[in-house]
User: What shape does this take?
Amino acid sequence: MRSSGPFRVLAKRVLHAGVVREAVRSIAAVRGHSLVLVYHRVAPGEPTAREVVPSVSTELFRRQLEALAEVGEIAPLDVLVQDRDRHARPRFALTFDDDYATHVDHALPVLKALDAPATFFLSGRALHGLGSYWFEVLERLMDAVGLIEISRLLDVQTDGLAELITACENNPALQQKIVQGQGTDGPSHLDRSHIEALSSAGMAVGFHTLHHEILTRLRDDELEASLNIGRGELERVVGRPLPHFAYPHGKADPRTAAKVRDAGYEAAWTGRPQPMHRRDDRYLLGRWEPGRSDVDDFLVGAAIRLIQRGHR
Assistant: This one.
């Protein structure tokens, strides 16, 4: 259940009235919530309109983190999982998905400079000699030939990039067709040394499955395999177990959550943009992707989500 309409409108008005930071502190203290954020790519420069994988600029990422540190505490993800009682200040955790080399090249220097902990949910594809995710290939094709030509090649009728992405996400056959047309460009993924660098810097690593399939569509045996294939290799690289899990594409249901629990994970995150509350199911926790919001809108978005109710 989301917060009531009048409260949501009032929150926006108060925040934009010039007391953004104090409002975030007060709202979080009243509700006793914490918020987990998710990013995919942090890179120099501004994103293009043809972007498939969400990204934020390095400078904006820094400003967003500085704003969070001003209004609350950026805490390790496992701290939020283990201690979900009320706190006087809002608490935030930072997470990153997928195997992008930008995690080390651009996100990690900002995290280290601000002494901010983060968790990286990885697939470990380079450890198995695997190529690009299908959505990376789609983005390269967008740059090379554009939306109209891609839609023709895939025989998909669509009015825009968002519709094309959704169509591909829901159709494994289209994903395979995209990957088959990737050409000679290889992925820019984290290799063993990159993953070791994240771990050595004090960052946590979680698992995101090797093949990034939508788990709710898999049979039980396929689902159980997906939760474990590649996990051991990542654990050997970082030198410790991977207790946390992020659902590919953010999609989960009670059946997948039960399988994640049975696989020995301690907690798992969906793509639902909701806060963490002490009574939430720890295998159906939410995360919010802030995107390219400027600092005031970013804090407004955080405050609105902090006053939502978590999943029960």
Residues 5-131+187-306 form a domain with the TIM Barrel fold (CATH 3.20.20.370). The two ends are 10 Å apart (CA to CA). The chain has two domains: 5-131+187-306, 132-186. The chain is about 45% helix and 10% strand.
